[in-house]
Design brief:
mainly beta; Methylamine Dehydrogenase, Chain H; 3 domains; 4-stranded antiparallel sheet
Length: about 500
């Protein structure tokens, strides 16, 4: 019995002008309603479904005279055809000019690291993914003169490919690319997930970041970064050359760094780098040698304490030194002497604690000093500071242990403590507190930055979050987006005060 389906098959064969001996090895439908057909003998055809006819044919693949004709094809967003067989690499066919380019282990400048191709897809950014056996994934960038990069297994990186032998590859409707490996399970890459560029130490790469545990950053006038580490000394990061230079303590060199544990840094108006250390006192660095300032029990005008947690130069070019245990020092550059717990020449002992954690000068000129005992605010022409502490009132500071103080582009003062984020209301002199109840990943706020879109970035012991402030009838509220290891963060826990916004708007 002759069915309607048989009639359709016969009609399609007639439309394609093929006989029963011509076998189709691969077929792909494009978004504009076309079918590309690849025959075993290398013959290519394009079939218009709506017009019900062949609109293009080519024998160029047949004429390549390769041992194995390609039997798989993929059509990219430019309408170019990618074809591959078992061991010939991959061919790129341009229908408009009827030309073929081959990519394999010997092709230059775009070279595959394996001729054994298993699949080809294109990601949402336009990169061509060529999955191989023993060569991982080869990424071909058509927009960059077909430059090629590689995704490979790195035994020391758990986030790299689990194996270099890719048997299957598939891009789903959400743009996620799935990779099936020979013996190491399934991998996937979700390009929709925000991935932060991460610099970290790699033992096999001498050009990588020399030391991973980072405490502080400052940026010089050329846009380079000075990085203070927790035991790895001082690192200079040349952003243009993408190179690192390291400075370490040398007990035999009095002009070297005094201690490898750096907890604070500041570049002053004379481009001198000031470095605060843990149990190593204060250093100044002019690019050639390190000068040391230490606490001396016999000298009342020496540094108050060798643990220098904060260094800050105000708009009057005063250099303030916050110590852990010795309170606040004002450094006199002319005499190289330190004045203890003084402000505007007034000899006082006004601070709620001698453990100084943060210093800020706001737009009005007020000096905010955060400590383990709350906040002291110094104003011009006022000898007595204003104190803000936790009084168990819901509108007081949420916790006396202040970690960071930040002023945003609108002049609002934010205070990060061990028990929440605090917003200061200058009219009522009260604080509004935000915690995990408002969507923050943790109550301990380690750093506060603001991006060029006037949204806040908060680092915590439980990840990084972007807090987007919005005003409603009840006051300020947050929309919070949290980030963790899935976004290529080093892990969820950050270091106190290890954050910086560069002149170009990058958040480090």
């Amino acid at each position: 019995m002759y069915s309607s389906t048989d009639k359709k098959v016969k009609s399609l064969r007639q439309d394609l002008h093929v006989n029963s001996l011509d076998r189709i090895s691969s077929i792909t439908e494009t978004k504009d309603g076309k079918l590309w057909l690849l025959y075993q003998n290398g013959f290519l055809q394009e079939y218009d479904i709506n017009l019900n006819k062949i609109i293009f044919s080519s024998t160029v693949i047949q004429n390549l005279n390769k041992v194995n004709n390609p039997f798989n094809l993929f059509v990219d967003t430019d309408g170019d055809i990618w074809l591959w067989a078992l061991n010939n690499g991959v061919f790129l066919y341009h229908p408009q000019v009827n030309s073929v380019t081959q990519f394999n282990e010997n092709s230059l400048p775009s070279r595959l690291n394996s001729n054994l191709v298993s699949q080809v897809v294109q990601d949402n950014k336009g990169l061509i993914w060529v999955a191989t056996d023993h060569g991982g994934v080869n990424l071909i960038n058509k927009k960059d003169n077909f430059s090629t990069s590689y995704l490979l297994n790195d035994p020391k990186d758990p986030r790299s490919l689990s194996q270099n032998s890719i048997t299957e590859m598939y891009k789903d409707d959400n743009g996620i690319i799935w990779l099936g490996t020979y013996k190491q399970g399934v991998n996937y890459l979700n390009s929709n997930i925000v991935l932060f560029p991460l610099y970290r130490h790699q033992e096999s790469n001498v050009k990588s970041l020399p030391y991973d545990d980072v405490n502080r950053f400052v940026e010089d006038e050329s846009g380079n970064l000075w990085i203070g580490t927790n035991g790895g000394g001082l690192i200079f990061f040349d952003r243009k050359q993408n190179t690192f230079k390291r400075y370490l303590h040398d007990p035999n060199n009095k002009n070297s760094l005094s201690n490898n544990v750096i907890v604070s840094m500041c570049i002053d108006h004379e481009n001198i780098l000031w470095i605060g250390t843990y149990f190593g006192g204060l250093n100044s660095f002019d690019g050639k040698k390190f000068r040391h300032y230490r606490q001396s029990g016999n000298d009342s005008s020496s540094l108050a304490n060798d643990n220098v947690w904060e260094i800050f130069e105000d708009r009057e070019q005063n250099l303030w030194i916050g110590t852990l245990g010795g309170g606040l020092d004002l450094f006199d550059r002319k005499t190289s002497r330190f004045k203890h717990n003084q402000y505007k020449g007034q000899l006082k002992d006004p601070l709620p604690s001698n453990y100084i954690s943060s210093i800020l000068q706001d737009k009005k000129g007020k000096l905010w000093v955060g400590s383990s005992g709350g906040i002291a605010i110094f104003e011009k022409n006022k000898a007595t500071p204003i104190f803000y502490q936790d009084s168990n009132d819901k509108n007081s500071l949420s916790n006396n242990n202040v970690i960071c103080i930040f002023e945003d582009s609108k002049g609002r003062i934010w205070v990060g403590t061990r028990e929440g984020l605090n917003l200061f209301n200058d009219q009522t002199k009260e604080f509004q507190t935000f915690t995990t109840s408002e969507g923050l990943p943790d109550n301990m706020i380690l750093n506060i930055l603001e991006d060029d879109h006037q949204t806040l970035w908060l680092s915590t012991p439980n990840g990084l979050c972007n807090a987007i402030p919005k005003q409603n009838k009840s006051g300020l509220v947050f929309s919070v987006i949290s980030y963790d290891e899935t976004n290529n963060l080093q892990n969820r826990e950050f270091n106190d005060n290890a954050a910086l916004k560069t002149r170009t708007g990058e958040l480090i």
